[in-house]
């Protein structure tokens, strides 16, 4: 065996063998669900002001309309785990794409707050479904040596979705002259921002017809011949029998010795499920989506008009994409834990700097502005925050969620963890408008505190899983939990 084969860190980001290329192609296709996730997260950004002026008329109601989709996401994530274990990954992907497509059309043609809420929740369910199925599928078809890089494609797709939404928002508003102006076919520009979502939803649905089912799911259902046929394209012939036998043995042991329940002694859930939940909550409680949902408002406080604020949001999303590529390159070389720790530190410092900058904010004609050097300091700190998150907690939480759960509960546990993530996202998104009116320094200071706590949690509870087979990670995490609870 060559040195390169023995040492996963010496490999390229993606395995260049025919098997690795096939796994990469399937991972990219599955990650389109992440694109929908990112697109939906930020498309509302360009429409917020128009929706408030035309429909909601109130900051509290506006915040709820923005964030209510996240409750749908939580519901979609929770039901996706059970559905994907029962129906398979691909059928559930198709369901998620259909729901998001319908939501995009309904949101574009909305005529009142109640019906807009309905469409936002429906789209959220579709996004929640996609957020669970994609990382589960990628983890189950990816070679262990490059699983971290392939699993990070989920976050890369999210960042590309954010970028596309913000760019299309800026282009549509620019062509129309304003998001409130009529663009084509009698529809305002902000309505077209939602309608663009039909395209990625349709692509995701079409791809779900072209992809093979997860071989681990097929084995769990006793469809061994189908699983072998798929593994023949993903695993070298010399490793095929070993891979099949290990998985079949593991599935049989699970059925004999353990149930597929998430229940345990740790506040009603298994400890490993709580690890996934806490990782998910920390990922959102640092306030990352405040940047992508309300960035236009933030950049106006720094002194930019609507047009420039939209362009800066696009620049921020490009930064997010680039640093996610860095994470993909490093995750299977450096490992998960060191990157998470560095990311937590950078987020803590940058959020603390933003809190300090807004302590000097002034209110002029009802608008918050930053005087002197504090405006560019806040601008730089906000983008450093995006760098810290995008290169660490953004992609790596999805990597860990895809690999820490044992196969017998992977779908359900991923659903619960992703559901917790969406609920945390909802709480942050809904409360930010009110908290920002109360005190921006304390708001950003609170996010900085959560970033610091995330450092402590990773240092205390998260072991390194680089280069390990999925079947090994459960044992590692169980051992880690026993060590930290002694």
What would your notes on this structure say?
This protein has 486 residues and is mostly helical. It has one domain (11-485): Growth Hormone, Chain: A. It has 22 helices and four strands. The protein has helices at 3-6, 18-30, 32-43, 48-56, 59-87, 89-108, 113-141, 147-151, 153-176, 189-195, 198-208, 215-220, 224-231, 237-257, 271-285, 288-302, 306-330, 336-358, 374-403, 410-438, 440-461, 470-485, and strands at 182-184, 187-188, 362-364, 367-369. It has a two-stranded antiparallel ribbon with strand order 1-2. Strands 3-4 form a two-stranded antiparallel sheet. β1 (182-184) and β2 form a beta hairpin. The longest helix is centred in the C-terminal third of the chain and has 30 residues, at 374-403. The protein is globular, with a radius of gyration of 22 Å. Residues 1-15 have low confidence and may be disordered.
Q: Any key phrases for this structure?
A:
486 residues; mainly alpha; Growth Hormone, Chain: A; two-stranded antiparallel ribbon; 22 helices; 4 strands; globular; disordered N terminus
């Amino acid at each position: 065996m060559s040195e390169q084969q023995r040492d996963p860190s010496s490999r390229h980001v993606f395995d260049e063998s025919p098997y690795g290329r096939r796994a990469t192609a399937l991972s990219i296709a599955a990650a389109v669900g992440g694109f929908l996730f990112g697109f939906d997260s930020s498309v509302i950004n360009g429409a917020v002001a128009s929706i408030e002026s035309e429909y909601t008329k109130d900051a509290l109601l506006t915040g709820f309309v923005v964030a209510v989709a996240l409750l749908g996401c939580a519901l979609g994530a929770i039901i996706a785990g059970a559905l994907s274990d029962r129906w398979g990954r691909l059928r559930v992907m198709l369901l998620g794409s259909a729901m998001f497509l319908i939501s995009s059309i309904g949101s574009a043609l909305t005529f009142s707050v109640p019906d807009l809420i309905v469409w936002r929740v429906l789209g959220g369910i579709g996004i929640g479904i996609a957020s669970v199925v994609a990382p589960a599928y990628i983890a189950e078809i990816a070679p262990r040596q490059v699983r971290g890089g392939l699993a990070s494609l989920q976050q890369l797709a999210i960042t590309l979705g954010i970028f596309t939404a913000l760019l299309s928002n800026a282009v549509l508003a620019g062509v129309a002259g304003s998001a409130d102006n009529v663009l084509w076919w009698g529809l305002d520009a902000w309505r077209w921002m939602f309608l663009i979502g039909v395209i990625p939803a349709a692509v995701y649905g079409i791809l779900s017809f072209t992809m093979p089912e997860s071989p681990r799911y097929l084995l769990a259902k006793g469809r061994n011949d189908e699983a072998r046929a798929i593994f023949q394209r993903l695993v070298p012939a010399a490793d095929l029998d070993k891979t099949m036998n290990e998985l079949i043995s593991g599935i049989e042991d699970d059925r004999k010795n353990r149930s597929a329940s998430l229940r345990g002694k740790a506040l009603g859930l298994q400890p490993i499920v709580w690890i996934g939940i806490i990782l998910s909550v920390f990922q959102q409680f640092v306030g990352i989506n405040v940047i992508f949902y309300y960035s236009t408002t933030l950049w106006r406080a720094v002194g930019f008009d609507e047009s420039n604020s939209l362009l800066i949001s696009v620049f921020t999303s490009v930064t997010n994409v680039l640093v996610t590529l860095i994470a993909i390159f490093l995750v299977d070389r450096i490992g998960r834990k060191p990157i998470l720790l560095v990311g937590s530190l950078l987020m803590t410092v940058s959020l603390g700097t933003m809190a300090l900058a807004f302590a000097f904010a002034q209110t002029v004609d009802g608008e918050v502005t930053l005087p002197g050097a504090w405006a560019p300091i806040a601008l730089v700190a906000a983008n450093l925050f995006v760098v810290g998150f995008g290169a660490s907690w953004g992609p790596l939480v999805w990597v860990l969620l895809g690999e820490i759960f044992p196969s017998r509960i992977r779908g359900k546990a991923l659903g619960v963890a992703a559901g917790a993530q969406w609920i945390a996202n909802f709480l942050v998104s809904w409360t930010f408008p009110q908290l920002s009116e109360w005190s921006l320094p304390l708001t950003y200071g609170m996010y900085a505190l959560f970033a610091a706590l995330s450092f402590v949690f990773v240092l205390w509870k998260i072991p390194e899983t680089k280069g390990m087979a999925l079947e090994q990670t459960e044992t590692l995490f169980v051992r880690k939990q026993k060590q930290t609870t002694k």
